[in-house]
Amino acid sequence: MEIDERPRPKGDLASQLAGESLDPYSFDELNERIALLEREIVRVVAHRDKAKAHRAAADALFGGPKTAPPDGNAK
Q: Average pLDDT in the 37-60 region?
């Protein structure tokens, strides 16, 4: 089985971080954590945008899914 075919584990690391108590962290440690999370957000957004562009290119090449007009009425 390929790595990408395995089911994703429930409760990813971001969820675990969100539930972690921040009480033991100092002011400086919290600032470091914020900086790390901000870098991770930039990385995830860049990957998402790359995936979106890849999908748009594939849809343009192979014909993407048909969408309803903006007014919601399919004709």
A: 96
Q: What pLDDT, in 10s, does the model give residues 3-21? A: 667 776 667 888 899 999 9
Residue 31: domain span: 25-62
Total number of residues shown for the chain: 75
63 pLDDT band, cuts 50/70/90, is: confident
Place of tokens 């900086």: 35
Q: Where are the extended beta strands (E) located within 5-63? A: none
Distance CA 51, CA 55 (A): 6
Total domains present in the chain: 1
